[in-house]
Amino acid sequence: MNKKIYLYSVNHDAVNWEEIKDFFVNKGFEVFLKNDPFLNLEGERLNKIAEYLAKIRVLHPLKKDLNDNPFPIEIDYEKRNLKREKRKKGIIYDAFKFLKIYHDFIPSELKDLNNGFPFFFTDQLIATFSDRWHLRVIILSFPVLISIPGIVHAPAKDRDYYIAETLKSVPEFKDYYLKENDKRLTKILCAYVIQGIFFYKSIIERKDFNFCDDKNCVLYNSHFQKEVISAQYNLNFCDKHRIEWEKFRQS
Ligand SMILES: [Zn+2]
């Protein structure tokens, strides 16, 4: 099976892309590190994507409606933000609609997974709607999309954290919980790329993709920051997935 991965990076103070590349090269992958495709947008294409982004903003945590009729100032914000090396955050976008933008950035040969696995990373917050909007770290679709601020904001902190925060004693927890510019994000991103590799592999093999039930396995679907640290940051595999991973790596 192909072991080529394409990482479409995004500028981020805490993320060392070369380290992520080396991690997978050392595991036997051929890694192509690419620049943020949004930075090359110009003219009509830039305008169109800016307008689209303004339209797919989430407006209310409980309501599915999006910002269908954006104000010119909102489109202008998106246009300026797209061209920034360090983008502003704070807006939440519909994850699946956001993902659609990336279809245009995938080179035609990568539309066939046998030629390589594309990974896109965003510096923005994305969410999916069920009973309400839920922030997401990773969208396992085509292509796989990973939100870097999602790692910090999507998994819940423990109840203790919120109590401490209310009582203004957060500093006690400050080394434990992930922050925006946390150096641990680089290693955690490797873990989410591994999830994406397993996902793509399952498509090629025509099998269902399932997360792992083992809280210490990299394929565990973490909902709490504590779980992200034990499952993703530690980069451990359960026995079953270790065997599968080694088999794939050496194939
Ligand atoms: Zn596992």
Task: Give a brief description.
This protein has helices at residues 17-26, 43-55, 72-82, 95-103, 148-153, 159-166, 185-204, 225-233, 239-249; strands at 4-8, 30-34, 58-60, 63-66, 92-94, 117-122, 125-129, 133-136, 138-139, 144-147. It is of the alpha/beta class and 251 residues long. The site of zinc ion has 8 residues, from helix 9.
Report the span from N to C terminus.
7 Å
Number of domains: 1
Q: Order the strands across the largest sheet as they lie in space.
A: 2-1-6-10-9
H and E order: EHEHEEHEHEEEEEHHHHH
- Most strands sheet: 5 strands, mixed
Helical/strand content category: alpha/beta
CATH architecture: 3-Layer(aba) Sandwich
Number of separate strands: 10
**Ligand set:** zinc ion
Could you please say which CATH topology applies here? Answer: Collagenase (Catalytic Domain)
What would the principal axes of the Cα set say about the shape?
Answer: globular
The Rg value, from CA coordinates, equals: 18 Å
Please characterize this protein's 3D structure.
The strands form three sheets. A five-stranded mixed sheet has the order 2-1-6-10-9, with helices on both faces. α1 crosses α7, α2 packs across α3 and α7 crosses α8. The relative contact order is 0.13. The longest helix is centred in the last third of the chain and has 20 residues. The radius of gyration is 18 Å and the shape is globular. It has one domain: Collagenase (Catalytic Domain), CATH 3.40.390. It is an alpha/beta fold and 251 residues long. Zinc ion binds next to α9.
